[in-house]
Structures are given as structure tokens and as C-alpha cells.
Amino acid sequence: MNEKGILIILSGFAGSGKGTIIKELLKKYDNYALSVSATTRKPREGEEDGVHYFFKTEDEFKEMIAKGELLEYANYVGNYYGTPRAYVKEQLAKGMNVILEIETEGALNIKREYPDAVLIFVMPPSVEEIHNRLKGRGTETDEVIDKRMKKAGFEITVVDRYDYLMINDVLEESVELFNSIVTCQHMAVSRNRDYIEDKKREFEEYLSRK
Amino acid sequence: MNEKGILIILSGFAGSGKGTIIKELLKKYDNYALSVSATTRKPREGEEDGVHYFFKTEDEFKEMIAKGELLEYANYVGNYYGTPRAYVKEQLAKGMNVILEIETEGALNIKREYPDAVLIFVMPPSVEEIHNRLKGRGTETDEVIDKRMKKAGFEITVVDRYDYLMINDVLEESVELFNSIVTCQHMAVSRNRDYIEDKKREFEEYLSRK
Predict the structure, then answer these.
(1) What are the beta bridge partners of residue B70?
(2) Beta partners for A33?
(3) Which residues contact B89 (CB under 8 A, 6 or more apart)?
(4) What is the DSSP track for B28-57?
(5) Residue A1 has pLDDT above 90, yes or no
(6) Which of A149, A156, A193 lies nearest to residue B200, judging by beta carbons?
(7) Chain B residues with beta carbon closer than 8 angstroms to that of A159
């Protein structure tokens, strides 16, 4: 069967809880690896280089682009964000399923280059719930919340181009749903063409011995 | 989210254990229904009408064909076998996932008419293992085993046209793998277009109130 890892792109509205799903998934299963992004944005309090991000200067980042070291990159409000290619390749080859948590734009770019990537979009059960979760954080101004809601209103228009839609209601269930998607992808005939060819040969040999 | 049931076609070599997987699945989960085939073959010892098969005369069966009451049918060694359409439709509408355990020919016919059907092929871990399982039953002559192995050698050539490949090694794991496939299919964006459209409208309304 398919022993290569699967590249999973996870996106979702602010407040969808996608970060928590990944955290719990990594705790529960040992065949997932989380890709760490490179960025030119300054580290925030508590953020560690190599854990939360690889922090780069703009020159360093541009060199990574020039050398083709990034799977995808984008610029948001003056800062670059990108996915280092080497780590992803290495983990996939080891059979690890690699998760990238990225914005819709980057997600769709990756899907164009790697049609085998699995795109999952997470959303809360209702639009009101998104608003309530953002409000509930207590850390965001009404203006920021409005901005995020508008962004979500744009993001919903590209969900059609994802592969799977997950409604994050109960965290533990969501972790299992996420794992179901990846488990089932490993069994997809399209990912097991070589295995099937091997079995055909095995049969031919067996039957020719009769 | 998609509340309609999913039509699942399960095929597999003789000795693949697909019957046992279905039996355990139906015991464990209550959202699956097994479709019962109609046939003109005579009931064997212990087989009940409406449980193992709907036993029909050839005239009755031909009338079902004429009235379009069968989802698919085929003739094997002089007997007709077919899938009654009404039961499948009714169960799918109720949100039950309906399993048809049928031969590869019927499976591919159904996929042509219902591209939404999910085709799963089950096989044992190795070709030798198929032989051993058939031999182990102790009820089949070497001639019958040879015939089944040749049939399997043909079946493997159409597995490419299935959606998923399941290696049945440990029964309990296989039951979970089967359920993963169906769970993940319910989350497929292609099955949730209406839900996504509803969400788009919900956002439009929310944002227009701002």
C-alpha cells in the first residue's frame, strides 16, 4: 500500500479552531508532522525560531525564493510568509503526513503544483458562531472582528475548490474526522497504482505456475 | 452538511473476508444498511427470502427488469442477480449509507449510472493468502479453488477503476478503515455544494447587516 506521507493543507476562518485541532492531532497520532513557515515578520512575545516560525530577514527570504527553496509564499501586509520545501519533502518521504496551516491563496497555489495535496477547510457550525468565538477571545477590537468577518466572507467563496469541508463543533470529533480523511486518502486507488501493478504481476506469476 | 446516505459498492476476491467486514460493521454502527439482492437461483439450505436474497422466478425477475425496478442486474451461470432500486433509494433518502456487495461487472455498471457511488475493493495481504484462505475453508475442491483464483486474476485487472483499495488483514482494523472511507466521503466538498451555497448566503446577509 501507499507508504508515502500525504501533504495536507488546512485552512479555515479565524476562530474556526484549526490550530487546536492540529495540536490535539499531533498529541494523539505519531504519523503527522507540522510544517513550520518561514516569515520576515518580527517574532511576537513567546514565539521561538524553528518552532512557531523560521524568522528571516527580507534578504534571506528573497534568497530562499530565488533558490526555489519555498513550496509557496505570499506577502501579507508587508511581510513575507512561505513554506520551506526541504522539510516537507523529507517528512513525506519518511511516510509522515505533513500538515500545512495556510491561507486560501497559498493553499490553492500548492494544489496547482501538487494535485496530490489534500485541501481541508474548517469552519464553525454557523456564521454567528464565528463572530461569537472572535468576540469571546476578548482580545480583539470590534474593528478587527469586522475585518476578520469580511475576510471570512471572501474565503467562503473559494471553499468549492477545496477537497473536504469540516465543521468544527466538538474538538475530539474533529480530530477523528481529520484523521479519517487522511486514513481514507491512503487507501485511494489513485495513490496505490504501483501496489496494484505489483499485485497484477503476483497473480500472473501464480497463475502461470499452475 | 451532506445528510443523504452514501451508496457503497463493495467487491473483493473470494476469501477476501468482505462478508465478515460488513457483518461487523452493521453490528457496530447503526447508519449502514445492507442491500438485499434479487435472484432467480434456488435458495440454499438456511437461506431466507428477504434476508439473504429476494427469491424470484425468471418471469418475476424479467418483469422487474422491464419495469426498471433494478439498479443493475447480471446473469451468472444461468441465474439472474440484481439490486432492487426502491430499497436503495429509500434508505439513502433516510440518511443511511447503503452497502451493495456485488461482483466487479455490476459495480462498474452502477458507477456509470451513479458516479456518486463509492467503489471499494477488498483484498487479502497477498495472493498466497487468498489461496490459503480458500484452502483453509476445507469445503472447496482444488478445481473450485483454481477457478476462483483465475477469477481473482481477472478481477485484479479492473481494480484501477475502483475508488478505494482495502487490505483486509486484521478484521477490526478493516471495519474502522471502511468506516473512515464513508465518514470522509460525507465531508467531500463535492457532496456539500448546497451546504456551501447556504453558508455563502449566510455570510452575505451577515455582512450586509453591518
Answers:
(1) B84
(2) A98
(3) none
(4) H-SSEEEPPEEE-SPPPTT--BTTTEEE--
(5) no
(6) A156
(7) 189, 196, 199
pLDDT over 80 (residue A199)? yes
What is the Cα Rg of chain B in Å?
A: 20
Tell me the pLDDT tens digit for each residue of A18-77.
999 999 999 999 999 999 999 999 999 999 998 889 999 999 999 999 999 999 998 887
For each of the domains in chain B, give its residue range(s) and CATH number, in order of start. 7-35+97-208 (3.40.50.300)
DSSP H or E stretch at residue A206: helix A193-208
Nearest to A203 by CA among B139, A195, B11: A195
pTM (2 decimals)? 0.91
Q: How many residues does chain B have?
A: 210
Mean pLDDT, chain B, as a whole number? 92
ipTM summary value: 0.90
Q: Which residues pair with B8 in a beta bridge?
A: B99, B118
Which of B148, B171, B104 has the alpha carbon at shortest distance from B15?
B148
Q: Quote the CA–CA distance of A51 and A36 in Å, as a whole number.
A: 7
pLDDT in tens, B103-121: 898 899 999 989 999 999 9
How far from each other are the two terminal CA atoms of chain A, in whole angstroms? 27
CA dihedral A12, A17, A22, A25 (to 10 degrees): -130
End-to-end CA distance of chain B: 27
Ranges of H-type helices in A29-84: 58-66
Q: State residue A40's pLDDT score.
A: 97
Residue B56 has pLDDT above 90, yes or no: yes
Would you say B178 and B120 are in contact if contact means Cβ atoms under 8 Å apart? yes
Asked whether the beta carbons of B36 and B50 are under 8 A apart, the reply is yes
* CA pair distance A10, A39, nearest whole angstrom: 18
How many of the other CB atoms lie within 10 Å of CB of A189? 19
> Is residue B28 less than 8 Å (CB to CB) from chain A?
no
> Rounded CA gap, B148 and B146, in Å?
5
Q: Inter-chain contact A206–B128, Cβ cutoff 8 Å?
A: yes
What angle is formed at CA A137 by the lines to CA A133 and CA A143, rounded to 5 degrees?
85
Which of B184, B193, B210 best tests the A interface by mutation, with the highest count of A CBs <10 A?
A: B184
